[in-house]
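Subject: for your reference before the review

Hello V.,

The reviewers asked for a structural picture of the protein, and I figured it would be easier to keep everything in one thread rather than splitting it across files. Below is the amino acid sequence we used in the manuscript, unchanged from the supplementary table.
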Amino acid sequence: MATRATSPHLARLRSSAATPVVGTVTRGTTNPNRLRRMDRWIAATHGAELRRSPDPVAVDLGYGAAPWTAVELLTRLRTAAPRTRVFGVEIEPARVAAALPYEREGLTFLHGGFEVPVPGRLSLIRAANVLRQYDEEQVAEVWRRLCARLAPAAEGSRGGLLVEGTCDEIGRRHVWVALGPEGPRTVTFATRLGSLDRPSDLAERLPKALIHRNVPGEPVHAFLRDFDRAWAAAAPYASYGARQRWIRAVRDLSADWPLADGIARRRQGEVTVRWEALAPRF
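And here is what came back from the structure prediction:
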């Protein structure tokens, strides 16, 4: 029985060997539900694009030592777009072998890296906690490579989506960049509000493109400074709960920063900012 189960997997590994694998092995740290905030945001904001696609294909790139995040991504995306297929792609062959028993209809695991060994243009690539170990100078090239794999924009469609970012080990704090075929669009800060002392606590989860830019003179530093001030000014709303305080702080923040979300997402402990407002200064 074990031999029959592993043979197709080994064949996939052999067939992919001719294609150079791009990237390096990550630590592989993962936990169930670690990416739930990111997944729910994707389903809510990108679900319509997935439903419009004749063949919605999503990739969980660098899912880690265990396949939980890919399994959960399939479940969550199918609540928004039932025809979605998910490919878990990992650069470490042993991790792919370990994931094989979790394959099911709509979920496949492959050996690969930033070359993304999935045919065709993709509706979604999620790369969470992957670029953390890379140098900042490498990020732009990885983004360019991955964006080139996205489905192009067309009439009535913005095309595929790349979501790249970082979160803590149990998924309470996230920051991610959303990119389309044309490049970066937005940055989203998401948190379990009950765990937050102040918004700038999220700075430690900034993605690689921004984490070294949280210094005076850079836009992301100014944004977090202003967010902390708005959070402090909204302190009277804390008596109604952390959610009401967050909503009030974000409302005040919107007077000076181009936010790209609405009240429904803010109630989830999120705020999304236009990329151009936070883009590093070179």
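For the response letter, the relevant points are probably these. The chain is about 35% helix and 20% strand. Confidence is low (pLDDT under 50) at residues 1-17.

Happy to draft the paragraph if you're swamped.

O.
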